Amino acid sequence: MALEKSESQIQTDVKSVATAMYRLGHWVGTEYQYWDKPDKDDKVVKQFDLSGLVCSASRLNYITADYGDDGKAFVYVSDAATRAVIVWEVETNRSFRVVLPKAITHDCTGRRDVLYIALAKGPVAGGGSLYLTYLTSNRMYRIDTCNLRRGCSDGTVADLGPKPEKMVILGTDGRTTLYFRYRGQGDVYAWDTDRPGDVTTFGSDRFTLVRKADDCGRLATHVAPDNQGGVLWILESNFPDYISGAVGCLGANVRLQPLVAQCGKQCT
């Protein structure tokens, strides 16, 4: 693989990605904690208590952060079991649940399904949409973040159409492009959600193959930009083999590297 960056630059970018991921925080019971300067004092600066927003049946899957046009930060968490998105306004520490329409689960076949959420930015500051789909659902949905922040889901969730196959959502580039793969397959695709003149159509004719599967049995689990937004990174592992106990003597295998498109250019 030919990269324009030197090895030292790549190592620096890997560190920045790891630092950004660590600063995001992690779950402690029903609380989500954020760190400030993790390489120095590990100081917790924010704590998001979900105990009043979840129930015994809740199954939290994905978390993403957003900024409104006024600069205020919001956090969205998907709860697959209760068909909801939890919204937290960071500055005021106000949180609430947005229950999604029953229609988004009517064709789901999984007993413990996964509710994917991916945030794509809009053309103006503070604008954007949250794309939602259950793993076993046949359709893709979207809700504008302005409606989500108001707690409004009635009549605001758009059905974008059928998915060609079951999709595993990997992440976004921090702008308008969403990355995914099909369940059980290693090829990674990109979908520009804001293609000029075509803002509502969803279908395979809009998908671009950006990475072919390797021969090592690894599958992509995450795609994310670094904290500078200049390099897009992909995380892959052999987790299906690990879970099934078929990894052999080499054990778990994880790889983090820049996402390079089929044309050989680095995705940014």
What layout of secondary structure does this protein have?
Layout (H helix, E strand, L loop, with lengths): L6 H18 L1 E3 L2 E6 L6 E7 L10 E8 L5 E7 L4 E6 L4 E6 L15 E7 L6 E7 L4 E6 H5 L7 E6 L4 E6 L4 E6 L5 E5 L14 E5 L7 E7 L6 E6 L1 H6 L9 E5 L10
Antiparallel strand pairs: 1-2, 2-3, 4-5, 5-6, 6-7, 8-9, 9-10, 10-11, 12-13, 13-14, 14-15, 16-17, 17-18
Which key features would you list for this structure?
single chain, mainly beta, Neuraminidase, four-stranded antiparallel β-sheet, 41% strand, globular, disordered N terminus, 6-blade_b-propeller_TolB-like, secreted, MRJP/yellow-related, Protein yellow-like
What gross morphology would you assign?
Answer: globular
Q: Can you list the strand order of the major beta sheet?
A: 4-5-6-7
Structural class designation: mainly beta
Main beta sheet strand tally, sense and closure? 4 strands, antiparallel
The CATH superfamily bears the name TolB, C-terminal domain
- Strand residues, percent: 35-45%
Radius of gyration, taken over Cα atoms and rounded to an integer in Å: 19 Å
Portion of residues within helices:
10-25%
Low-confidence blocks of residues: 1-24
Number of strands: 18
Précis, in short:
11% of the residues lie in helices and 41% in strands. The chain contains three helices and 18 strands.
Structure overview:
The protein has 268 residues and is mainly beta. It has one domain (7-258): TolB, C-terminal domain (Neuraminidase, 6 Propeller). It contains three helices and 18 strands. The chain has helices at 7-24, 145-149, 239-244; strands spanning 26-28, 31-36, 43-49, 60-67, 73-79, 84-89, 94-99, 115-121, 128-134, 139-144, 157-162, 167-172, 177-182, 188-192, 207-211, 219-225, 232-237, 254-258. A four-stranded antiparallel beta sheet has the order 4-5-6-7, with no helix packed on it. A four-stranded antiparallel beta sheet has the order 8-9-10-11. The radius of gyration is 19 Å and the shape is globular. The model is unreliable at 1-24 (pLDDT under 50). It is found in: Secreted. This is Protein yellow-like. InterPro entries: 6-blade_b-propeller_TolB-like, MRJP/yellow-related. Keywords: Secreted. It comes from Aphis craccivora (Cowpea aphid).
